[in-house]
Amino acid sequence: MEKIKASELKKIINEVVLNRGLPVMVWGAPGIGKTEIISDTVREAEYQLLNYRLGYFEPSDIIGIPMLKDNKMTFFKWSSLPTEGKGVFFFDELTHAKPQVMGLTYQLINEFQIENYTVPEGWRHFIGASNRATDKAISNVMPSALYNRFTGGHYELVVDYDEWRVWALNHDVSPVLIEFIRYVENNTDMKWLFRQTDNQLLLTPRMWGQGVNKALSIQNEELRNKVIGGMIGEDNAATFTAFLKQYKDLPDIDKIFAGDFSWLEKPHDSSLIYIFINGWIQKLKTTQYYNNGIKAIFMLKNKEYILSALSLALKTLDSKSKNKFLTNEFYIKNAKDYIKYLQDF
């Protein structure tokens, strides 16, 4: 099965599903963002999304309830089935469904109809998603006939730190947490963003971004550490909280953007610099002191850090924000030495 990153999945949805009308199936572990990536991509393309969690469905929910009308047998369907517009049928957790329910999707995907319901032309786009059998989640075997209906291909979504970092910077994940993942992934022989064992799955992008990130706001340190231990396990939490204690001289992003550059004038550990870069990118999108923000990044002592910040900003900012960034007078004046390295962004 072809392994793909989040950015590649977005391209496949646009090119294969939306532009060519071919159904695709996405496989992957729990908590890595399958549902969110699919939903966001479809909506960004201005299509509606109908999410069918087929694990909760009975056959009659799809085929309809047989009733006599005008002396003829007809099937009354669930009222949310689309009759106009354009959109995507999204069969999330597809293999959680009963075999009979999975079987009813054959005709819908292949012939765009089921009994007396016909899929509108603008809705003839289908995506399935599910966990792999090895994930030990609730999962039934996908019938071979259904497997073959996904003529746009089967793909396994894999976790990638660089792509998760871009997502995290756009979803208000703590700059310190983002840097912790980078640091331990690069300096230990263990996986931290995503780690799966035979018995448990504690470390996932969802747990870091939704769980641990929110737990960081707990003011009581003892309670905060216990909560994080409950989320990712005691040993993992001990490593993370030790990292938090190590860095007391964190940059005050608001002060720097307001024009106080004193923090930048002192030497700092590389992790603190990357924490600053993470916070700097998040602040760029909301600050009223934009010019100070651009000035600040060029005050970093090491050109490697400056290039890292510039390239990450261009990968993270949306098209409107990117244009504002690239046309800023301070950027144009100071970025001449870096332009040739930024062509791909």
Written overview of the protein:
By secondary structure, this protein is α/β, with parallel strands linked by helices. The protein has two domains: 2-157, Rossmann fold; 161-341, no CATH class. It is 47% helix and 12% strand. It contains 16 helices and ten strands. It has helices at residues 6-18, 34-44, 59-63, 99-111, 144-149, 161-169, 175-187, 205-215, 221-232, 234-246, 253-257, 270-284, 290-297, 303-316, 319-326, 329-334; strands at 2-4, 24-27, 48-53, 65-69, 72-76, 87-92, 113-114, 117-118, 126-130, 154-157. The strands form three sheets. Strands 1-10-2-9-6-3 form a six-stranded parallel β-sheet, covered by helices on one side. A two-stranded antiparallel ribbon has the order 4-5. A hairpin with a 2-residue loop joins strand 4 (65-69) and strand 5 (72-76). The longest helix has 15 residues, at 270-284. The chain is elongated, with a radius of gyration of 24 Å.
